[in-house]
Write a structure and sequence with these properties.
The complex is a heterodimer of chains A (about 325) and B (about 240).
Chain A: H1 2-6, H2 8-36, H3 43-68, H4 75-105, H5 114-138, E1 143-144, E2 153-156, E3 159-162, H6 163-185, H7 187-197, H8 199-204, H9 209-235, E4 237-238, H10 242-257, H11 262-286, H12 293-307
Antiparallel strand pairs in A: 1-4, 2-3
Chain B: E1 2-13, E2 16-27, E3 31-36, H1 42-50, E4 57-62, E5 65-66, H2 72-78, E6 80-83, H3 95-102, H4 109-122, H5 124-128, H6 139-151, E7 157-161, H7 169-184, E8 188-192, H8 196-202, E9 205-210, E10 213-219, H9 220-225, H10 227-232
Parallel strand pairs in B: 3-8, 3-9, 6-7, 7-8
Antiparallel strand pairs in B: 1-2, 1-4, 4-5, 9-10
Helix pairs in contact in B: 3-6
């Protein structure tokens, strides 16, 4: 117990790092749900693709240096590699998100709600299995993701912060603040909120709802793709299957915070990360085990939903005036 | 100049035949009122103008341009703005954000700012509450916002669907006063209204719609005198002989 308490501050720091990652994914679920009331089950796989595509780009452009330096780069090369990883994830995942909406969901826009839901599950399987086929075909069953930065512990105010967490602490807040600005202050953000609240009234204002929906999928997918890069850098591996569980936990985070609510998704993500990290740290002292992390997350979800069925910050259900 | 014209327009909602070959004509500068019972096709008329419902037959012409196949976005750009039934303000957005959305299709930022202060002059209440969420305002205030929002599009034709619905008598009067003053600024108005008495008092002409067909059309004063309107919409007792 002592050991658990002693390491608690560090545990919370780690929880914050993975929580921010979950939050980034959760935002995509919540944005899409807010507008279409659709749970985009393929979203976790877009997250996975962010890690995968950036892995491919890093191998292609920095393969030689990465190989020679055990995955670690320095100076300008490091900055370039990180920018490249996020850029590739942004462009490719944004594109994937656009294509999924345009060709899988849009034709079902007026169909009963179950149709797009089942389609989403189908898209998820298609992406996962396509990547699996590629992985088996090329013999890349275990993709080691380069750590890029030197793995070390940085002491800050008595805390021990792993260097890999620094990337999360820099990128995730930028993305989140950027999203809040986009949704809160820009013309497109206002169109997104208007469409989420009353789609027909939004059309009456001359808002091109199809464009808004496409844009929403792109934004959500970009955030997920960036989270994929963060995940891969943090855990130094990526494969076809990681999107499922991470996606499920991020979805839980979105529901926990109140689905459709942007700040709720951020809060939910952080909570899920902390719960997971805390349960994981009990492992060391009490032998409870990481296998309890997921049950604990869902236990928290159930407890919250019993008392607050719409999540912590409240679901943004369209209120008819 | 003819502002808006329906030429033999038919529309369907799924299998339901709503408008059955209607003809309307709204001249520039007029206030034209559309009367009819629930389900007669009034709201469908409004949605057809906006491009939310497509005519299967017939044409909708706005200032000489066929708009029946346009998207709502193109229709609003062409100069038509709606005050929808039930106001439909964006309740979780502020008053000023709602007004900005009214000007969504415009990009002349300077003129948009001018128009917003003009709306605030027209409705000082909205100015006081510009930071407030629209959903927290009273029905009457929301109706002012819905009208102000439509004005932000700088429309030449304002289409209003039941602007007095659910409002207290004081607000009803204010809404009709506002409609008249907007009209005096040169905006043509095509209005659906249950409150036939008030509507016909300010209108130039009117149409009576029944089961998707125009059964009566005349100048407003004559409509007020007509037996059909008096019995059906002004609540006069029907004499049983």
């Amino acid at each position: 117990m002592n050991q658990f308490l002693q390491s608690l501050p560090d545990t919370l720091v780690q929880g914050l790092a993975i929580g921010m990652m979950y939050a980034l994914i959760a935002l995509g679920y919540t944005l899409v749900y807010g507008i279409l009331e659709l749970i985009n089950f393929a979203h976790g796989d877009v997250f996975m693709l962010g890690g995968l595509f950036s892995w491919a780009a890093l191998q292609h452009f920095f393969g030689a240096q990465i190989g020679a330096n055990y995955g670690v780069l320095g100076g300008g090369t490091l900055v370039m590699a990180i920018i490249l990883a996020f850029l590739i994830a942004t462009v490719s995942c944004g594109g994937v998100g656009f294509v999924i909406e345009r060709f899988a969901y849009r034709p079902l826009r007026n169909a009963p709600k179950l149709a797009p839901l089942v389609t989403a599950i189908g898209v998820s399987f298609i992406i996962e299995n396509a990547v699996l086929v590629w992985q088996t075909g090329t013999g890349n069953m275990e993709l080691t993701y380069p750590s890029l930065i030197n793995q070390q512990i940085i002491p800050v105010l008595g805390l021990h912060i792993p260097s890999k967490a620094i990337i999360v602490f820099v990128t995730a807040p930028i993305l989140m603040v950027g999203l809040l600005y986009l949704v809160g202050n820009t013309r497109m953000g206002k169109a997104m909120r208007a469409t989420a609240q009353d789609q027909e009234a939004a059309r009456m204002m001359g808002i091109d709802v199809n464009r808004v929906i496409s844009f929403t999928f792109i934004v959500g997918s970009v955030l997920a793709g960036c989270a994929g890069v963060i995940y891969a850098l943090y855990y130094n591996s990526i494969d076809y299957s990681v999107g499922f569980l991470a996606g499920l936990k991020a979805f839980t985070a979105a529901v926990l915070g109140g689905i459709g609510n942007i700040r709720g998704a951020m809060l939910g993500g952080l909570l899920v990360g902390e719960v997971e990290s805390i349960v994981d740290s009990i492992d060391a002292s009490q032998g409870v085990g990481l296998q309890w992390a997921e049950p604990a997350v869902f236990l928290v979800l159930m407890c919250v939903l019993i008392f607050r069925p719409t999540g912590l910050l409240g679901a943004q259900v369209v209120d008819k005036a | 100049m003819t502002m808006l014209q329906f030429n033999g327009v038919h529309t369907y909602y799924g299998p339901i035949h709503v408008l059955k070959g209607v003809n309307y004509r709204v001249e520039e500068g007029e206030i034209v009122c559309l009367l009819g019972a629930n389900g007669a096709g009034k709201t469908t008329t409004m949605k057809t103008i906006l491009g939310l419902v497509r005519p299967t037959e017939g044409t909708v012409v706005f200032k000489g341009q066929e708009i029946g196949k346009m998207t709502p976005s193109q229709v609003v750009k062409a100069g038509i703005a709606p005050v929808p039934e039930g106001r439909r303000v964006f309740s979780r957005m502020s008053v000023s954000e709602n007004l900005e959305l009214g000007a969504y299709v415009r990009s002349d930022h300077k003129a948009i700012a001018d128009d917003m202060s003009r709306v605030f002059d027209l409705f000082p209440r909205l100015k006081e509450r510009r930071k407030q969420l629209a959903g927290l305002m009273s029905g009457g205030e929301q109706q002012m916002l819905a009208i102000g929002r439509a004005m932000m599009a700088r429309p030449t034709l304002l289409i209003m669907d039941e602007p007095s619905m659910g409002l207290s008598p004081i607000f009803v009067e204010r809404v009709f006063d506002t409609v008249q003053s907007i009209n005096k600024q040169g905006v043509t108005i095509f209005m659906v209204e249950q409150n036939a008495n008030m509507a016909l008092t300010i209108a130039n002409r009117g149409y009576v719609l029944q089961n998707g067909e125009v059964v009566l059309e005349n100048d407003a004063a004559s409509l007020l005198q007509s037996e059909l309107v008096r019995k059906t919409y002004l609540g006069e007792a029907i004499e049983v002989s």
